[in-house]
Amino acid sequence: MLTFIPFLRYMKRVLSFFFLSLLALSCTTKGHYTSSPIANYRALWEVLDKGYCYFDEKLPQDSSWYDMYNKYLPLIANDMGQDSLFDVMGMLLSELKDGHVNIIAPFDVSRYSRWRSDYPPHLDASIRSRYLGGSYRIAGGLYYTPISYLDHAKDSIGYIVYTSFSNSLSESGISSAFARLARCKALIIDIRGNGGGYVSYSTLFSSHFTDKRVLTGYMRHKTGPGHREFSAPVPVYLDTLKMGIKWLRPVVVLTNRGVYSAANDFTMNMKNLPLVTIMGDQTGGGGGLPRSSELPNGWAVRYSASMMTDADDRQVEHGILPHYKVALTPEDVADGKDTLIEEAIAYLNRTTKEYRLTGVYKK
């Protein structure tokens, strides 16, 4: 049985980011060190005021970022300790409701996770592991097998679980997995609970599912300190592989609110492809491209600095809707079944049959 520990992996990723950020910032950022609580609080507010990209999306219409500054200013005192200052800064940042916004200190990392924790997970990890069985293969971060659980061997459907885009992924690993699933008529890719990682892995994985260049979205970069100072939208394309194995058969991608950041990007890419269907719950979002800055006391702050939208130029920061919304039911859990996987199997059996008869794939 597999054990999935996305939070621990998240913390490992963030702490690694902290040390790399401090190394980079120590080489590139010039400024005067001060431990003054008010100076650091003001510096934090100003960094986001000039660089954050989602104020219009995140703050209520009747409030401003300056209102947030004033809200927490009374909690700042010259004689407060580091822990207390860290906590107040974390409260200020939590007003943005953004999982890409963090204070990173040597002793802690602030975090906002209600994009995931406020919603049902639609996932039972112990049941999901039964669909992988005991003979699954591993290609880097991919766990894969033809599904045989609950007499599904007859359906000839491959199953891939990818729990984090921080886990190793390579062209050779993906192609090797596809070669060993070649007898399967269709594929289920389960990224529920995948909190992101490297966008380059998202692009690499997605590129195995298209035979032509596809517009997947637009990127806008901050061009000035104003909250609405952005570049013109820059088209973002997904290119097909120049070498390696492509999977040009029907695919279902399973999502939930735990899908964030690079996993959200993967969902956005895949949703544009004609043979791919997204099923499950809305993703958690995380469409901003983060950057980091250093505060006068040496702490790092990470924040969303560039804005991503989908191929129709719609926001993806708050998540991406599936083609078909499916919830995990208590009845299925009691029977040892995963509702989302079962629905995906039934859907693929039906649509692949029609596809073979008509040559047209209808989602």
UniProtKB/TrEMBL annotation:
The keyword Ribosomal protein is annotated on this UniProt entry: no
GO molecular function, one term: serine-type peptidase activity
Tail specific protease domain location: 120-327
InterPro entries documented for this protein: ClpP/crotonase-like_dom_sf (IPR029045), Tail-specific_protease (IPR005151), Tricorn_C1 (IPR028204)
Segments crossing the lipid bilayer: none
GO biological process: proteolysis
Residues spanning the signal sequence: 1-26
Gene3D superfamilies: 2-enoyl-CoA Hydratase, Chain A, domain 1, 3.30.750.44
Keyword Signal part of the UniProt annotation: yes
Keyword terms of this UniProt record: Signal
Name recorded for this polypeptide: Peptidase, S41 family
Organism this protein belongs to: Porphyromonas endodontalis (strain ATCC 35406 / DSM 24491 / JCM 8526 / CCUG 16442 / BCRC 14492 / NCTC 13058 / HG 370) (Bacteroides endodontalis)
Lineage, uppermost ranks: Bacteria, Pseudomonadati, Bacteroidota, Bacteroidia, Bacteroidales
